[in-house]
Write a structure and sequence with these properties.
This protein is mostly helical. The chain has 2 domains: 7-114, no CATH class; 131-269, no CATH class. The chain is built from 11 helices and 4 strands. It has a 4-stranded mixed β-sheet with strand order 2-1-3-4. Helix 9 (191-218) packs antiparallel against helix 10 (223-248). The longest helix has 28 residues, at 191-218. The N and C termini lie far apart (58 Å).
Length: 270
């Protein structure tokens, strides 16, 4: 595999996803051994052409010979073209680049709620908050989570009343509104950060239900098996909610209301 020599990729030290995939670029030989660095720890004089705030938003790739800097999806496509040269024309096709730049931005501007930094935000340059991307993330995770839950509840037939087509959409959407009201009272400055984290938990929980749904296509299992699986996932979600609440420093109120909402909804359904 070819190596993109004399290039330096600048990643977000506080972003676990960024550390992971840039490390993979180096370990697989796509970049030199010293081809990655955290933008927070790079002296200004080392790369004077880099826009530090833009690098905090979109990963920067610096050509150390020419000083040219690319950002975001263009940086990644430059590396991917080396790994998959047959796709290089696609990576230069402007409509495709534009579309993927939106997908990249959707992830990049929500990365702190997808995988939050373990030690908080300790550096000067932080990703810019863009409300429309956060709202888009909430809508996306709400729709996917509700869709999976709607399909999963059918596996617990006899244990729960039959679900109408939109019940889970109302339940998931209602929790966003309810928890949004609570966080607005408790700490309104963290409303969008909390809601993003909460919906990441819901989305991850829904994805953890997929293996059980896959089993249902091959085996005829008791509804109690699917109930037990669901409860195990709910337990993991609770632990993750507690962990993220500690990282956000919002106390226990949101975890308590998160649990109470689910209990009340369950009692209403039953």
């Amino acid at each position: 595999m070819k190596t993109l020599k004399n290039h330096l990729i600048l990643f977000d030290e506080e972003c676990p996803m960024c550390r992971m995939y840039t490390s993979a670029f180096v370990s697989t030989g796509l970049l030199d051994e010293d081809g990655r660095a955290a933008y927070q720890e790079l002296p200004t004089q080392a790369c004077p052409m880099v826009d530090r705030q833009r690098a905090a938003n979109e990963i920067a790739l610096v050509n150390q010979e020419t000083g040219e800097v690319t950002y975001g999806i263009e940086s990644l496509f430059k590396i991917f073209a080396l790994m998959m040269p047959f796709f290089a024309p696609l990576f230069r096709f402007k409509p495709f680049v534009w579309l993927m730049s939106k997908v990249y931005a959707f992830i990049a501007y929500n990365r702190r709620v997808i995988v939050p930094p373990a030690k908080g935000e300790n550096y000067l340059f932080q990703p810019t908050f863009k409300l429309h991307y956060r709202i888009a993330y909430l809508i996306f995770t709400w729709l996917v989570t509700a869709y999976i839950l709607s399909a999963y509840t059918g596996l617990m037939q006899g244990l729960l009343p039959a679900s109408h087509a939109y019940r889970e959409y109302f339940v998931c959407g209602g929790q966003i509104l309810f928890q949004g009201l609570v966080i607005a009272i408790v700490n309104k400055d963290k409303i969008w950060g909390y809601l993003g984290n909460m919906m990441t938990i819901s989305f991850a929980g829904a994805l953890l239900l997929l293996p059980a749904m896959l089993l249902s296509a091959w085996f005829s299992l008791s509804p109690y098996f699917y109930l037990a699986w669901f409860m195990a996932v709910a337990g993991l979600m609770l632990l993750e909610h507690i962990r993220r609440s500690k990282l956000l420093q919002i106390g226990w109120a949101l975890t308590i209301t998160w649990v109470l909402y689910r209990i009340v909804v369950l009692l209403i359904i039953i």
